[in-house]
């Protein structure tokens, strides 16, 4: 029985200083497709532009991949380091008659195009060297061009876009090797994908035209083409191509916002791909469900409100220790002071009452400040205003009443309610001063949750501090 070929996908970003959210989404699709089929997911850095391809720019891509949790198989491949192999293939195509040496200068090419424009002809350059035998070649610099078919069509069977047809008379004999011996991007991509065993080229549909040219190289070399799958780009909420004016375009900007990586994976998966009506799902479900047939042909639109909702859903379902670790990562990414072990422990204990309606990691940290604060608490002005002479008197009485009661929710609720009623108040009137005393804030988790998290000793100390405040 024939063995099924192993699926191999790849992401091949250019290091430009950030990892774009579109690149992140493409990486995710490739990762999901490979992981769901026991295949390999490879990473290649297309670093042939030496001016932009700095170690820092490459590290930015690796940071983005690591934060997203998209693990790749083997080492990251440098396209630049493979230049000798690319040149070798160009020379092999030359020897086979599928490429030729072109001695046309830039001035000659421009003169050709100017004449074509003046005559109303296509400006597609037709090299006069295409069929000149070796004996007629000068001793001069040359490029190696693909000898592309001049008639007929190049057809791409695309798993997302369907059958896409290109007229060959609209495709030029592209340069594969420059006169200085360096390969062009078009050649390098094909050689790398072939040598790395890539079976599925899942990438943005801005590469669809490239597929026609790259397919001609595959066919000239007699190599099996990958399955082509060109996915629509991401647009802003206004339907225009995503740009800085729409907000964050780099994936690490979302890390800095405090979006959990799991939520980002869920959200990106739904940008252009769907599985029935499912909007919210786990990694395991995404890996199980993801298929190229679920990718639409229309551009996806970035929706920050939806991202926040997805983040809230994931935060509500994550484990307490996991969320504390995520907060630690967020603090590190943003250069903020890290939490001590004691702070981590108390934050984990508080997490059950922080998750509700939190949309980001900073939300959680903000809601959990009561647990991390040290005495004496800093008072926000609206909270300080709650501590008038009457409320301070009630807090003094409460401090005595809470000395020996059982420290559980029912007992605390009953004790605080009785204290309010003794002064002819509903408990809601006492909640404001209690929030101020326990957190120094007017917006907090419930006072009972705060008391349970910080414990009897700290609660009594904070109540005592608040009751003895001046003013």
TrEMBL record:
The record's listing under PANTHER family reads:
GLUTAMATE--TRNA LIGASE, GLUTAMATE--TRNA LIGASE, MITOCHONDRIAL-RELATED
Listed GO CC annotations: cytosol
**Pfam families annotated for this entry?**
Anticodon_2, tRNA-synt_1c
Q: What's its job? A: Catalyzes the attachment of glutamate to tRNA(Glu) in a two-step reaction: glutamate is first activated by ATP to form Glu-AMP and then transferred to the acceptor end of tRNA(Glu).
Tell me which species this is from: Roseicyclus persicicus
* Name of the protein in its database record: Glutamate--tRNA ligase
Identify the keywords attached in UniProt to this record, alphabetized: Aminoacyl-tRNA synthetase, ATP-binding, Cytoplasm, Ligase, Nucleotide-binding, Protein biosynthesis
- For binding ATP, which residues are annotated in this chain's numbering? 244
Residue ranges for motif 'KMSKS' region?
241-245
- From the Swiss-Prot or TrEMBL record, state where the protein is found: Cytoplasm
Which CDD domains does the record match to this protein? GluRS_core
Family membership noted in the UniProt record = Belongs to the class-I aminoacyl-tRNA synthetase family. Glutamate--tRNA ligase type 1 subfamily.
What is the predominant subcellular site recorded for this chain?
cytoplasm
This enzyme's EC code(s): 6.1.1.17
GO MF, one term, reads: zinc ion binding
Q: List this protein's GO terms for biological process.
A: glutamyl-tRNA aminoacylation
Pinpoint the Glutamyl/glutaminyl-tRNA synthetase class Ib catalytic domain residues.
6-308
